[in-house]
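Observation: inputs received (chain + 2-acetamido-2-deoxy-beta-D-glucopyranose).
Thought: call the complex predictor directly.
Action: predict_structure
Action Input:
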Amino acid sequence: MKYLLLLMFLATSSSSSAYEISELRVPLLADPRRAAELSCHFNMDQYRLHSVKWYRDMDEIFRYNPQQTPSIRLFNVSGVMVLGGSCQAARCEVAVRPAPVAARALYTCETSTEGPKFLIARETKAMTVAAMPTSDPVISGAPGAARAGEQLLLNCSADYSLPPADIRWYIDDQLQKSESWERSGLSAPSEGGLRASWRALRLSAAAARGALRVRCEAELPLQPPVRRDATATILVHTGTYPDKYVAGRGVTSIVNKAMFVIVIFWTFLKTSIFTSL
Ligand SMILES: *[C@@H]1O[C@H](CO)[C@@H](O)[C@H](O)[C@H]1NC(C)=O
Ligand SMILES: *[C@@H]1O[C@H](CO)[C@@H](O)[C@H](O)[C@H]1NC(C)=O
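Observation:
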């Protein structure tokens, strides 16, 4: 009796492993501007195929019933447009176009055999909606050379992507904490929901260092993250300007301030004359 049970167990386990989904192909990343192809290959063993169903998370998006007309039915669900598909005895392919939203969803292929048994086989893989940048970020506002103490405003612009890139600045390989007053932004979405992001960096060219190496890193927050970067080197000059020039600038600015005060005072006098009339 024991042996009989063991034999039965072996027989069922070997036959059930022959009826299976042998391969499920789902792209890891899908660009919302293009169709993504999903494919499912299965071994029916001695069974007859009853149906093949595709799901996005819990929602059915596609059904193939070889015994019915039409044999293929598509279901619209939020998050994906089902463009079409084709099925044969041992495989089923579906074309989908994900909504332009950076999201991850599980795609399941489920096969079922004819009754009375209706054996089910199922495989699932995740697909993340993303669109890669086609170029490195660009740093603008970085002069080749600067005076010690000079205030600089740099801007790093990342290419269009989905999700939009997070931008980080490094000076001599040190991450710059982003201050609340530092500006950053996103472009309007392009076709497929891609956006370009930018972040400004205010910095003071310090006197001690001969050169500043600034690096801007644009990262798409995916698993694993996708990074691209750009660098710029700014030479910093110290004490290379004659005193006369510096003093002259000082005098000019004092004269300008005095002129400004005089103009304000004169305007005030004129206004008070008019209002007193
Ligand atoms: C799905 O939605 C698209 C666009 O809204 C429509 O053209 C198509 O006919 C719909 N398909 C089904 C099966 O409802
Ligand atoms: C930075 O560049 C982007 C364009 O790439 C622009 O829209 C934005 O206004 C710039 N920011 C600053 C602070 O200059």
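Thought: report the result.
Final Answer: Residues 155, 157, 183, 198, 200 surround 2-acetamido-2-deoxy-beta-D-glucopyranose (ligand 2) (CB under 6 Å). The longest helix spans residues 243-276.
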